[in-house]
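User: Here's a chain of 340 residues. Predict its fold as tokens.
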Amino acid sequence: MTTAGDAVRTIAILSNNEGLGDCIRSLYMLRALKRALPASRISWYSTPVSPFANVLRGLVSEFVDEVRERVTMERPFAVAVRTLRALPPADLVIDTRTALKRVAMARLFMRHRRFVTGCFGLSWGATWGYLTAPRHHFLERRLDLVRRATGVAPDWQGRPPVAAAARAIAARLVPDGRRAVALAPGLGTGLQLRRWPLDRFIALARRLEAEGDLPVVLLGPLEFPTADAIRAALPGAVVLDAALAGEAPVLDLTMALAERVSYGIVHDSAVCHILATFGVPLVAIFGETFERRAHPFAVRYIAVRAQDFGGNDAALVPLEAVEQAALALRAEIAGEARSR
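Assistant: Prediction complete.
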């Protein structure tokens, strides 16, 4: 019996979702694709700059043989056509984009044997797949593309590897037996409506610390300038920045700390999806993004939505609502531990 993945030796994946969180979530898709087609050579083509080409290079290299960023395959039209025609031929193209014109261009001008997309309206098969797939969630849509491309259920289970040096640092910062809570107040630029205010993260951390939790504040490079102020407000907390990480890459230490925290409080961010990758139960605060599309994948979480407080700005979510969710999640985790 043959399957959809038979005789696939070269795969091209087209993407224009290249935020750090998007790429973290795409690792599930790539893991499933490589397991289904282990002999294939996978190329990742990105229209913007891609974290897969730099900060996530070590994680994606297990699955992807080539990453090309800033590939002009959308506009201007004439340049995009030349670019698409010049790309190496592929047995299989998986286009993760959803804009009809852009996907149609790739299908028309790339050299390929088979083309899989979730774009509505491109073909009857693609349209039916779009309508019937669990399409609301970013990752469910991408895993559905893998299923359609390979003909088998996606096997995405697994965690990224963590460097031994980062694990040693994390073990020193969060000792065995200490209940730790991860707090992720950072976000990229231009995402203010997703951001729960930093002063509320600090206030919540103080309340949880008073009850015996160790706050572990996970920052990204854009938030490093706030680290000293957070340390001053939370002198007993672990605050991750470049100074704390030392020679260890910040991403490595973030993942190592994710292995040691008991639960986390996040908004829709890259750190949210890193913690979810390591199975950390989460309180997820949603502002302008919708829970059904961006919730932590395959992990227990409690959602606190700005829409329940009158709008799409995460700042509308009161401290008490997040604290209540955190205490409820912590109680669930403790109850399960006692029942084992």
